[in-house]
Design a protein that fits this description.
Layout (H helix, E strand, L loop, with lengths): L2 H13 L2 H8 L3 H15 L4 E2 L6 E2 L1 H27 L5 E7 L1 H6 L1 H11 L3 E7 L2 H9 L5 E4 L7 E16 L3 H5 L9 E2 L8 E4 L5 H12 L5 E5 L3 H9 L4 E5 L12 E6 L5 E9 L9 H4 L7
Parallel strand pairs: 3-4, 3-5, 7-11, 8-9, 8-10
Antiparallel strand pairs: 1-2, 5-12, 6-10, 6-11, 6-12
Helix pairs in contact: 1-2, 1-4, 2-3
């Protein structure tokens, strides 16, 4: 089998549709179907269950896709090592990032990166933490900017630490009670929020569990009125006058909603989360990745 066949099968598995995969690969549906049929004939086993919609890989198909991704990863690593020898004049790599990192972190480092490495192209894949962890383990990304999930197969290199703030509408009585003057955020006791409607991330998210633990230590269980998939949504809802939430202080950097939201530090409690560079252990990383490890101008 050749690299084209590997790409064909992996793309079909990702798209779960011959039609969608053909469009993505810029080939005709008949060409892709014929190529897949010939490959399956040579292997003597089907790679996809065609009785289901969308298409689902068979056990053999899953083995094929996983191995193909490993081959792609080895190929990328070989190219990266060669590119380092050639002073990294040309090349590309794939980065997985959270929505928060895409919005708040990448704008701080990418301009500097491209100034130093103008010939390098970056492919971004934006997803949630659990999805990014899966992408790392399946070699679908070269590395990811994530909050650690403590997976023993992944190496984590700290980049910078964010403080967690409380965010509420500026019209909220507590916002009026606590002055919002100066550059430093005023402090508020968590117990003052025990009757508030909270907007939190879904179960299984690390920040949510940390917040629940802090509330429990303060003597109450928060009233969760809404669960959202990302902090940007929570931030936008608070700006429109609904609920109380917890966000990273980096979100307040150049915040267009700052005239609608009051931000507070948590009194006598410091909740922090650290962005890390995550990659598979023993994985080769090119020198250019160092640009992502030392952000010089992250100030909130």
């Amino acid at each position: 089998m050749n690299s084209k066949e590997l790409h064909y099968v992996v793309t079909i598995a990702e798209e779960r549709s011959i039609t969608n995969a053909a469009n993505k690969l810029f080939v005709s549906q008949s060409t892709l179907s014929h190529s897949l049929a010939k490959l399956e004939e040579r292997l003597g086993i089907p790679l996809f269950d065609r009785s289901t919609i969308p298409l689902k890989p068979t056990l053999a198909g899953e083995l094929f896709v996983n191995t193909a991704n490993k081959i792609f990863q080895l190929d990328r690593e070989l190219q990266q090592q060669i590119q380092d020898v050639a002073n990294f004049k040309h090349g590309s790599f794939t980065i997985g990032v959270t929505h928060l990192a895409e919005r708040s972190y990448l704008p701080l480092v990418l301009p500097r990166f491209y100034k130093k490495y103008p010939g390098i192209s970056i492919i971004l894949k934006v997803a949630g933490l659990n999805q990014l962890e899966t992408m790392l383990l399946k070699n679908m990304v070269d590395f990811a900017i994530i909050i650690p999930l403590d997976n023993p197969s992944i190496e984590y290199k700290p980049i910078f630490t964010m403080n967690v703030l409380i965010a509420m509408p500026l019209s909220h009585p507590l916002a009026k009670k606590h002055s919002q003057t100066g550059s430093n955020y005023p402090e508020i006791d968590l117990t003052e929020l025990k009757n508030e409607d909270f907007i939190l991330l879904p179960q299984g998210r690390k920040l949510r569990e940390t917040i629940l633990t802090a509330c429990k230590a303060a003597g109450f269980s928060p009233k969760i009125s809404l669960e959202v998939s990302n902090l940007d949504t929570a931030h936008a809802l608070v700006a429109e006058g609904y609920g109380v939430t917890f966000i990273m202080d980096i979100i307040t950097r150049n915040d267009p909603k700052k005239d609608k939201i009051a931000y507070f530090k948590i009194k006598n409690t410091r909740i922090q989360q650290t962005f890390c560079l995550g990659y598979l252990k023993k994985k080769y990383l090119p020198k250019a990745i160092d640009e992502f490890l030392y952000p010089q101008d992250i100030q909130v």
